[in-house]
Amino acid sequence: MTPLPESEATACPVARSQELVGDRWTVLVLRELLMDNCRFDELQAQTGATPQMLASRLKKLEADGLVVRRPYNQRPLRHEYVLTEMGADFYGVILALRAWGEKWCKSPREGLAVKFTHIPCGKDPGLGTVCQHCGVELKRAELIGTQSAKYKRERAERSSHA
Q1: H or E stretch including 30?
Q2: What is the pTM of this model?
Q3: What class, spelled out in words, does domain 6-87 have in CATH?
Q4: Residue 129 half-sphere exposure, CB side, CA atoms within 13 Å?
Q5: Which sequence spans correspond to the domains of the chain?
Q6: C-alpha triplet 82, 17, 1: angle, nearest 5°
Q7: DSSP-assigned states of every residue in 9-57
């Protein structure tokens, strides 16, 4: 008898999800794609992944249906990586990880790495996946993010070493 793939061996959606996106590099790649960084060099700079690690994760994300690869330059041939609907739906997970990380992994003295404004209500939506003011589920296209000075410097520093 052939064993079932691990994802089919359980009815648990957490276990099945973890099989697709359950490592640090994959989550960081998805974070960057959700921040509209879609080229290999940008992804490598902001995740800190080795070229081999990043290529491996992008191929897996593509095979699993979260990302599509599109050429943006013909000579030399270069590709960008674009989220599919499935990949874009990971945004709520990123918001939940952000909320948890802001609460448990940082000192309150540090302040938020990114402050958001919820466009429909014009307010700070707070941490989480639902706006604390209007009660609407947060969507990527309906948020304006402003990076803290520290986070902005950190990201610029990584880009300058790419």
Answers
A1: helix 24-34
A2: 0.90
A3: mainly alpha
A4: 10
A5: 6-87, 90-160
A6: 120
A7: S---HHHHHHHHH-SHHHHHHHHHHHTT--BHHHHHHHH---HHHHHHH
Render each residue's pLDDT in the chain as its tens digit; 162 residues. 444 456 677 899 999 999 999 999 999 999 999 999 999 999 999 999 999 999 999 999 999 999 999 999 999 999 999 999 999 999 999 999 999 999 999 998 999 999 999 999 999 999 999 999 999 999 999 999 999 999 999 999 999 987
Query: Within 13 A of 75's CA, how many CA atoms are on the CB side?
Result: 0
Question: Burial level of 104, CB count in 10 A (0-12/13-18/19+)?
Answer: exposed
pLDDT in tens, 55-78: 999 999 999 999 999 999 999 999
CB 81 within 8 A of CB 69: yes
Cα separation of 33 and 85, whole Å?
12
Dig out the tokens for 45 from the structure: 């700079």
The contacts of residue 23 (CB under 8 Å, 6+ apart) are 57
Rounded Cα distance, 128 and 74, in Å: 41
> Do residues 162 and 44 make contact, with C-beta atoms less than 8 angstroms apart?
yes
**Secondary structure class of 66 (helix, strand, coil):** coil
* Single-letter residue type at 38: C
Question: How crowded is residue 64: how many other Cβ atoms within 10 Å of its Cβ?
Answer: 15
Residue with tokens 């990949």: 87
